[in-house]
Amino acid sequence: MNRKREMHRLDRGHPGVSDLNNALLRCCVIGLALATSEIAQAQTSVTLYGIIDTGIDYASNVAQVSNVAVVQGSGAKLVQESSGVPLGSRWGLHGVEDLGGGLNVIFTLESGFSSVNGALGATSTLFSRNAFVGLSSAQYGTVTFGKQWDAIVDDVESFTLNGNLGGWYFSHPNDMDNTDNGFSINNDVKYVSPSVGGLKAEAHYSFGGQAGQYSNDSSYGGGLSYSSGAFGAGAAYLRVNNPETAVAGYQSGGGYLNSVYGDALAQARSQQIVAVGAAYHFDAFQLLGDFTNVVFQQGDAGRNVVFQNYEISGIYTLTPAWTLAGGYTYTTGRDHETGEEPKYQQINLLAQYAFSKRTALYLMAALQRALGSARYAQIAGFNPSGTDQQAVVRLGLTHHF
Fold first, then answer.
1. How far is CA 8 from each of CA 18, 21, 27, 215, 301, rounded to the nearest angstrom?
2. Where are the beta strands (DSSP E) in 4-114?
3. How far apart are CA 118 and CA 109, in angstroms?
4. In 3D, which of 65, 110, 157 has the Cα closest to residue 376?
5. Which residues pair with 96 in a beta bridge?
6. What is the DSSP letter of 384?
7. Residue 180: which of 249, 280, 254 has the closest Cα?
């Protein structure tokens, strides 16, 4: 029997029990109200927020994978429903407590999820995106502790097309430079300075947590950003030691193959990223450009595997409701052990219609071609194509709450 119906039947049959239950309920409500009042007085604000993105994808050619290798001749068209592409589906809590004198306690808890099946993010961690607490001062800056984004995300991502529109599928091949926040940093301490004349700096360090092996699984980085009127720019550096275990990057396994840099990631002593970007607003048009250099130290038989990404893109606000965007990325790499030089070209296009400030319908497309030593094209989010070309089209809906 349903427990609610069972309790209702007991209440009807025993008036004394009902009166007691009602009295206890009133006490609980009063106690909760008092507790909520005390919390509200002690804490300035707590905000619940989130994004839900769901869409239908069409991919021209996606190969099957067996034993971490492409099954030859298995490439085929793919139609699927997926979540969190231009913006990762998420919910979160952000809190601020005013301590007086311009000093605040801040915290953020942010969880990624799939709107297709309700599952947690790819790492199956409750707060897979952010979980940090810290102190913030308009005069002295902000110090935070916990799981949080690095300087690449903070200072350069906004100058990429995927950092504004398009997200995952528009990122540089398999988001090798984390400009699409493919991973956040655990055990991190971060300082962000106040803005002085439009210039802001940050630095962070992540503890590896291994006794006697302080550098293992540790990471560190820093960045600068500048904003003045229509112009903005940023530069950042990130080093992650033992990236296969330190961060949840795009690793091969479980039916997924990263044909771009997967082996190099698995073997690398460190992943080092240097990134710069800039943007300029011409009324309704925004021009963006960025460059990243990625080194997988000792990524192949003790020698480095290196990639460079060059991107130029634009965003045009046609009307308050309509936004158009397009971009081009050229990626070149070199394996210093084998001498191979993989290359990739990718074109990204998007049209978006905003029903309101919170809800937008979009149509996006990405086309990638593998060149040089690269055998397979691979747009982030898909297994490799069975050929040197892969195209993806997506129709989706995004809602902010």
1. 9, 11, 20, 61, 70
2. 45-62, 76-83, 90-100, 103-112
3. 18
4. 65
5. 45, 106
6. P
7. 249
Question: Which residue type does 7 have?
Answer: M
Neighbours of 394 (CB within 10 A): 23
Q: 291 is written with which tokens?
A: 């460059």
Strands 342-354 and 185-192: unpaired
How far is 203 from 190, CA to CA, in rounded Å? 6
d(CA 308, CA 233): 19
Rg (CA), the chain: 24
Query: What mean pLDDT is reported for the chain?
Result: 89
pLDDT tens profile 89-105: 999 999 999 999 999 99
Residue 264 tokens read as: 């190099």
Question: How large is the average pLDDT for residues 58-70?
Answer: 94
193-249 pLDDT tens trace: 999 999 999 999 999 988 888 889 999 999 999 999 999 999 999 999 999 999 877
Cα distance between the two ends of the chain: 37
Q: Whole-angstrom Cα distance, residue 169 to residue 394?
A: 10
Helix (H, G, I), strand (E, B) or coil at 203: strand
Rounded CA gap, 379 and 170, in Å? 8
Going by C-alpha positions, the residue among 151, 170, 179 that lies closest to residue 314 is 170
How wide is the angle at C-alpha 311 spanned by C-alphas 306 and 317, nearest 5°?
155
Backbone angles phi, psi at 17, to 5 degrees: -65, -40
SS3 assignment, position 298: strand
Q: What is the H or E stretch that residue 151 is in?
A: helix 151-155
How far is the C-alpha of 156 from the C-alpha of 339, rounded, in Å? 30
Cβ contact 263:250 at 8 Å: no
User: Do 329 and 320 form a contact (C-beta atoms < 8 A)?
Assistant: no
